[in-house]
C-alpha cells in the first residue's frame, strides 16, 4: 500500500490530468516520485539463473506451508462451515502460492495474480485468506513488486490499484459481511459498550490501522531495498570510473615523465656529442702539424664524454626505484652520479665559456633588481639551461656563425611586460648568433620541439627564427611566480594589526612549480 503522503501522487499519475496544487505540494510530489525512482533510467535485474531458481524454491516452500496450514486450520475447525469439498480447499490454498515462483522475473504480474486470487478467495472462501502463510505471501508479493519492478511508473499504477481494490474490499467486508446489525444487537446502547468507543468503530479503526501498517510496510521496505540496490550500483560504477581515471592519470604522468626525460636526453646527447664530433674533427686535421692542439682537443673530448655520461646516468637513475639502505649515501653500489644536482642558471657561464671550436661566445646576465636570479625556481632554471644548451649545440652543428651571445635576463619588477602572464616578472634566456644556416646539416627538429614543450610546461613564451639583421635568435621567456612574503614585513604588519585590534587579511601566494612539473 502507498503511504498517506504518497497515495494522492499515485492517483494523479493514474488519472493523468493536471491538478492545481500549491508549490509545497508540488515539491512533496516531486520528492515522492524521485524517491520511488520514477525518472530513473536504472533497472534492477536479478543476477543470473540462481536468482530465478531460488524463486522457484520459495514458491514450492510456500505451497507446502499452505497445504500444512489448511490441514491445521481444518483440525482447528476453521473450515466447518465451508460447503466446498475439502480437496478444493487444498487446491485453492496451494494454487494461490504459485505466482511467487516467478516473483522477480515478472514482479508486477505476480502481484496482480496473487492479489486477484486473494480477492476471489475473500469473496468465496474467506477462511483460506486468514491463514498465516497466505498473509505472509501477500506481503512478499507486494514487497517484491516494489523492490524489483523495472518500470517504476507502471509499478506505482499497479500497486496503487491493487491497494485501492484491497481497501475497497475491506470496506465492503465491514459494511456487508459483518454488518452493523450484529454489533447493534450485541451492544444496543452506549451503556453496553465494553469501552469508551463504539465497538463497531473501534473494530473498523483497528483493522484499518493494521492493514495500513501491513501494506505500507511492504511498500516502504520494498522501495528502500530498491534504493539501496541503486546506490550500490552507483557506487560500483563510480569505483570503476575512479579506477579508470586513476589509471589514465597514471599513464598521463608516465608519458609526461618520459617526454621530460626524452627532452633531457636529447639535449645532453646533442650538446656533448656535437662538441665531441667537432673536437675530433679538429684533432684529425691538426694531428700531424700541431700535437699540442691535438692534445687539447682530446682533453675536451674526454671531458665532454665524462660529463655527458654523468648527466645521462643521472637522468636514467630517475627511472629506477632505489631501495633505502646503505646509510646516508644510499645502498651499497649506488652511483654518486645519479645523485648529482641538475644544472641550472648558475651553470650558464660555464656552458658559454666552454671550448666551442673557434666560436667566440659571450655571456651576459641582467638582473632587475640585483639578485633577482635567486628567485628563479630550480625547474625553471633547468629549462632555461637546457634551452641555452640546445641553442648552442644547434649553432655549432647547423650554422656558419663565428660568434654567439647568451643573455640571461631576470626581471622581478611587476608590470615589466604587458599582460597578466608576466605580472610578477619573468626570467628569459636569449641565444643570438651571426651566422647563416649551413647546407646539408638539417636536423630532426626534436631539439626545437623540446624547447617549445618546456616553455609550454611553464606557460611561457618562445621566439625561434632568423633575425632581420642577420643571424638566428632563440629566446625563451618564462613567468616568475609571485614572490614569497617578507617574514619581517609580515610580522610587522601582524603586530600593527593586533595593536589596532583589526584582523589582518592575508592572501596566499601561488606555490612555486613542483618537481613533478619539470
From TrEMBL:
InterPro entries per the UniProt record, alphabetical: DUF7134, HATPase_C_sf, HATPase_dom, Sensor_HK_TwoCompSys, Sig_transdc_His_kin_sub3_dim/P
Domain Histidine kinase/HSP90-like ATPase: 383-481
Gene3D superfamilies: 1.20.5.1930, Histidine kinase-like ATPase, C-terminal domain
ATP-binding keyword on record: yes
Keyword Nucleotide-binding recorded: yes
TM helices/strands, residue ranges: 56-73, 85-101, 108-125, 131-149, 156-180, 200-222
Domain Signal transduction histidine kinase subgroup 3 dimerisation and phosphoacceptor span(s) in chain numbering: 257-321
Record domain DUF7134: where: 63-172
Superkingdom field: Bacteria
Enzyme class at the top of the EC tree: transferase
Region entry Disordered, spans: 318-345, 485-518
GO molecular-function terms, A-Z: kinase activity
The reaction(s) this protein catalyses: ATP + protein L-histidine = ADP + protein N-phospho-L-histidine
Keyword tags: ATP-binding, Kinase, Membrane, Nucleotide-binding, Phosphoprotein, Transferase, Transmembrane, Transmembrane helix, Two-component regulatory system
Family matches, as PANTHER family: NITRATE/NITRITE SENSOR PROTEIN NARX-RELATED, NITRATE_NITRITE SENSOR PROTEIN NARQ
Protein name per UniProt: histidine kinase
